[in-house]
Amino acid sequence: MDDLPLDQVRTLLAVVDEGTFEAAAAALHVTPSAVSQRVKALEQRTGRVLLTRVKPVRPTESGEVVVRFARQLARLERDARAELGLTAGQGPVRVPVAVNADSLATWFLPVLTRVPQDPPICFELYREDEAHTTALLREGQVMAAVTSSPDPVAGCTVRRLGLARYRAVAAPGFAADHLTGSLAEDLREAPTVTFDRRDGLQDAFVRSLTRGRSGAGPIRHLVPTSDGFRDAVAFGLGWGMVPEPQAEPLLRSGRLVELAPARPMDVPLYWQQWKLDSPALSALAEVVATAAAEALLTDREVGPVR
Fold first, then answer.
1. What is the model's pTM?
2. What's the gap between Cα 130 and its chain centre?
3. Pairing of strands 58-59, 93-99
4. What is the mean pLDDT of residues 72-101?
5. Cis peptide bond upstream of 119, omega within 30
6. DSSP secondary structure string, 5-39?
7. Could you give the CA distance from residue 40 to residue 298 in angstroms, rounded to a whole number?
8. pLDDT value of residue 119
9. Cβ atoms 144, 281 nearer than 8 A
10. Which residues contact 254 (CB under 8 A, 6 or more apart)?
11. Under DSSP, is residue 233 helix (H, G, I), strand (E, B) or coil?
């Protein structure tokens, strides 16, 4: 593979973004046959299948590498045009970022108001579980992500942000009805509120009590919004792990009780971003790091990481 022809790389990206060869042809103002030929030529040049021919089209693992390169190339081209004063008609700089729901609900959104808007920046947020935001980086859909993974995605840098603390809580009435004996044993049966099917915090908490013997109970109510999750626990639908900033006001008011005050769960969060000399991305990264230092806990504050 001596090089990657730019027209072929951009064509592959168009197919992935548009979902079909026909739609990509319309977007590029060429024929579907030309799109097909360019993609085939790129696959022959790389010696790999780059697309799964389904509807919508999906990149293979090798295709994701080329797609990510194409997006980075487009970003570099846009930044270069901006520095040369050739931005007329381009519109604002688009910065797609993957963020977990709890960060969005507690500390991340105010961050965006601190980022300089010269030139104007358009933020495009993707909500995803912190354990899975790196998948969007790997696919090239986002330029940066708040994640629980310290392992860098290929082509990305990693910066530790801090620890997000969660508290095991329940409504007083729920606790009186369901949590009357051994907490470890009761939580193996008690109804649980979970964010979605990939939310493993409640299971991890119960395993910490049972020394890995068991996770949370089989009755699981899925509530896929951060505020809705907190409210579902406060209304007594089940118990759950609620971010400390959301739990504290309800604990003070008596709407929630803490199940194990001495056993919070601390989830490390990291900032991963493309290795690009992009002014907009660099500005966002610095603001995120500053805000995280204000909002999250440090290892020194909590002692050994849980």
1. 0.76
2. 5
3. unpaired
4. 77
5. yes
6. -HHHHHHHHHHHHHSSHHHHHHHHTS-HHHHHHHH
7. 50
8. 75
9. yes
10. 172
11. helix
Residue 189 one-letter amino acid:
E
pLDDT greater than 50 at residue 36: yes
259 and 205 Cβ atoms separated by less than 8 Å: no
For residue 71, what are the CA distances in angstroms to 42, 140, 144, 156, 277? 16, 7, 12, 13, 14
Is pLDDT at 305 greater than 50 in this prediction? no
Structure tokens at 20: 């079909």
- C-alpha distances (whole Å) from 182 to each of 189, 214, 215 are 11, 14, 15
pLDDT in tens, 100-131: 999 999 999 999 999 998 778 899 999 988 88
User: Which residues contact residue 35 at a Cβ distance below 8 angstroms, ignoring those fewer than 6 apart?
Assistant: 11, 14, 15, 21, 24, 25, 28
Coil vs helix vs strand at 229? helix
